[in-house]
C-alpha cells in the first residue's frame, strides 16, 4: 500500500523577520506614539514558538494584530499558522496582551 508524508510547518526565519518588521513599524507609526504596543517572538522549545502582542486596549491590539498579519503575508507566511482565536488577557493597569501560538503540523 503506497503512502506519503506531508510536512506542514511555517518558515520560522520569515516568521522572525515579519515580527521584527512589525515591531519596527509599530515603533514608528503615529497612532502608536506613547503607547505600550509591541510584538515579541518567544521560543518555548525547538518546535514551539509564541508571538505575544501587547497594547493599551482591545481596539489597539486588533491594530497590532493587523500589522503583524500584513507583514506575515508579505513575507509569504500563511496566517493560518497562527492560533488567532487566542484570548485577550488583561495585565497591569489598562494594558492587554494576546499570546498567539505558531502552529506546526496538522492538529
Please summarize what this structure is:
The chain has 107 residues and is an alpha+beta fold. It has helices at residues 12-28, 58-74, and strands at residues 38-43, 49-55, 88-90, 96-102.
Describe the 3D structure:
The chain has 107 residues and is of the alpha+beta class. It is built from two helices and four strands, in the order αββαββ. It has helices spanning 12-28, 58-74, and strands at residues 38-43, 49-55, 88-90, 96-102. Strands 1-2-4-3 form a four-stranded antiparallel sheet. A hairpin with a 5-residue loop joins strand 1 and strand 2 (49-55). Helix 1 (12-28) packs across helix 2 (58-74). The longest helix has 17 residues, at 12-28. The model has no long low-confidence stretch (mean pLDDT 87).
Major β-sheet annotation: 4 strands, antiparallel
| Assembly annotation | single chain
Task: Classify the helix fraction into a percent range.
Answer: 25-40%
Output mean pLDDT.
87
Q: Which outline best applies? A: elongated
> Which strand order spans the largest sheet, edge to edge or round the barrel?
1-2-4-3
Termini separation (Å)?
Answer: 24 Å
The class by helix and strand makeup works out as alpha+beta
What percentage of the residues does DSSP assign to strands (E)?
15-25%
Order of helices and strands: HEEHEE
Total number of strands: 4
- Poorly predicted ranges: none
Tally the helices: what do you get?
A: 2
Return Rg in Å: 15 Å
